[in-house]
């Protein structure tokens, strides 16, 4: 069968790649055309050849947008991509269009594909439980089957009367099968020419805008922490985001702070796994940090206007998935003005110095992991999708 998959950001690329592995396992002759990133492309190349006229259509780095204001500013580019995508689907005629999160783009494609007579699956539900609940009407109208990944979504979508399939969370597969989970700290240090000293992980986000707002905070936090004698030997390692380059981080790196701040690409999971603590921009990385069992503090700074709009329509107590899953603050979240070097430093010191506090957090982590279910979610979802197509 022919599968047209659309993932619009780094987390979608991760889950899309694991879904593709599951599809190829269930349907070895699968022909997959997709919008995604390097991870999805590597799976496709492993299972097919460059002579097959499918593969990667657009890389997510060419169109990733977050926030109300940002969508408005880049509306022409977004609409151009939507138009191109519609034409590409019509020309390729897939058996199913599989949409992964990325609602601003994917809802437009869902409506088009449904009206054009294509089967539409939505994998990783748009966060209608957080904001813009009116989109539920579109899910009912344009999506043939919804595949959800969080346990708290089960009662929500049941109440809303939307048919769904839940097979657990695919991030468990991505973490447990990762190189990071199956290597020693020494392996990691030697591979990246790092000294055998304690590591603090710093993740500034995957988008250029997030990096530009978080990097000044992270570098200042690291500088202040290094002035404390007991932390003078610590090294601070930034996980370079996929599809970004050193040029996105260099404006905040100086001759002095480069002595203890390192930027590594393709090593984010290992950085998290082998760190004493992590400062994480909210997103999938925060949930990965839970699954790697690394104490964390979440920080997020968005466009000021976007934040003011979001405050008025987002209904959630927390911005991090881990906290949402157990409906309490397993770890601290510092947002906007609260996300500053002083507060982050105080919290990281608590994570390192307060044993009871650290143990409580790790206990909450175990509860979060348990709530997500066991392994095999990606393969189970792929199998369920194919069963739906064969009905």
Task: Characterize the structure shown.
With 391 residues, this protein is α/β, with parallel strands linked by helices. It folds into 2 domains: 2-170 and 376-390, Glycogen Phosphorylase B (Rossmann fold, 3-Layer(aba) Sandwich), CATH 3.40.50.2000; 176-371, Rossmann fold (3-Layer(aba) Sandwich), CATH 3.40.50. The protein has 17 helices and 13 strands. The strands form 2 sheets. It has a 7-stranded parallel sheet, with helices on both faces. Strands 10-9-8-11-12-13 form a 6-stranded parallel sheet, with helices on both faces. β11, α12 and β12 (296-300) form a beta-alpha-beta unit. α4 (75-92) runs parallel beside α5 (103-115) and α10 crosses α15. The two termini are 14 Å apart. Mean pLDDT is 91; it is low at 64-73.
